[in-house]
Input
Amino acid sequence: MAEKPGHFGEFGGQYVPETLMTPLAELTASYGVYKDDASFCDELAHYLKDYVGRPTPLYHAKNLSTHYGGPAIWLKREDLCHTGAHKINNTIGQVLLATKMGKNRIIAETGAGQHGVATATAAALFGLECRVYMGEEDIGRQSLNVFKMKLLGAEVIPVTSGSRTLKDAMNEALRDWVTNVRDTFYVIGSVAGPHPYPTIVRDFQVVIGREAKAQINEAYGQDPAAVVACVGGGSNAIGIFYPWLNSRVKLYGVEAAGHGLDSGEHGAALEKGTKGILHGSLQYLLQDDFGQIQPAHSISAGLDYPGVGPEHCYFKDEGLVDYVSATDDEALAAFQLLSKTEGIQPALESSHALAYLEKLAPELGEHQVIIVNVSGRGDKDMHVIAEQLGLEI
Amino acid sequence: MEIGIPYSDPLADGPTIQKASETALANGVTTDTVLEMIGEVTKKRDVSPVLMVYYNLIYRYGLERFARAAQRAGVEGVIVPDLTVEESADWKTVATEHGLDMIFLAAPTSSDERLEKIAAASSGFVYAVSLTGVTGARTELPPDLTTFVGSVKSRTELPVAVGFGVSRPEQAKEIARFADGVIVGSALVDLIDKAAPTTRPEAVKSFAAELIGALRGK
Output
């Protein structure tokens, strides 16, 4: 798919300090060996099954389907993964790779804290030292996840530079890596960063789509009409989309519209961004006329990122995926709807994907099937939701 | 003379330059302001300014437009800390057309093969990054610096200048024994930050004189 290794069309690449080029080459080479290594694959499969809890169910949400009165809506239940989100599919894979490469120190960035918790969990499992960088702003918003990471034995470092959110945490993790490059493995949490990360993270998340495709074919004997997933950096979306690229299945990636796409306060890099370089790769991003990165906004900390994975940028330009968006309010309404109709409380990130059903469900017929990726569960968001609804916990 | 254009996400820089960039951006400094400032100086003085600029600022401005504006301001070379040789083809074409030197960075982790590529792609001088890490003052120079700089020098006729972590005259003097140039950034920024506004030019002048004194007395 890529024109030259590490590129997706013109996107991606390795725009990093020279110091990182050798470790990136080492990572590319090691991953190249282990991804096809039978014992590595068996070990990973074992942990995904018995530790993460895969395969996750594909659940026919009949009440929600009845609510919309049209197509059959099925939910891919990544919220049922150990630690409560799809993030662990990737961290188990990367930390296992780190152990094979002989790296004994793990670092990661985190926004909402889900990737941080998933990395700290994997590091605890494999007995490695773990340090997680988190923006000071996010530490305030996600204190429960900070507490969890500490209990898992990770050191959480508050990042006070820039906008004090995910992008700055990623800058700081990259600075740590540049400094401690010889013994450290940087576990990136989304399909972002320099090559080979977007490819590695995608490969570790494709398990979502592979399972969903087999599950829906078993249930219906055919593919769905549409698949919907939220897009921040884009790892859960690329994971579920991948097996259906270049097919008749319509793929919808839902970005955060925040207070509205024209409000200037959103996270819709694909719809509203321009091309630029952030965290080592060429992508669409939110920036001003001089190339200064602009802060994103979303009710969900996991979608609060000014860039987006380079392969999604390629999909957009090639017309392989439709990128749409949902506002904070629409996501909040979708969260409440799924809670009440199905007794499932999705993460606010995943609620953006569910919110798009308002537009999509009426367009499809009764005999058609939509799969929505419920990428995570909503426990971490309860205080944000309470605040938005004017309630106290 | 190296001048940095402030960037919102300076991932190769330590706390000093990060803070300076944030302050500059908050005060409304842009790519245009910096280039205008350089233009003012080059009109009056015979200096050879080199820009330190993250690639996104060049990319967003437009490669051609950026190179033209830099050339007009009297810039002689450009250091792009996050542009590797592999990704530099487009910028090389444009920079060469406008007579701008392309100063690539060589790192202690660079393989021999990479050092060859870096030496071949560079013009003006080669920037040897003294350590694995970000910019900012350190008390000690890395022990293997001499070997590393020697390894870079053996691959190029260009001068090799050492930067990252160099802050004191005695360090500059030490480096001058085996390198062709010394780059001091964060220490100057710190100095400006700590000095009272009216005494800043004098403070910079006397620190620069100390550094030059240390080099001349080698």
The mean pLDDT of chain A is 96. The CA atoms of residues 245 and 387 of chain A lie 39 Å apart. DSSP finds 16 helices and 14 strands in chain A. The interface with chain B takes residues 13-23, 25, 161-162, 167-168, 171, 174-175, 178-182, 274-280, 282, 287, 289-293 of chain A (CB under 8 Å).
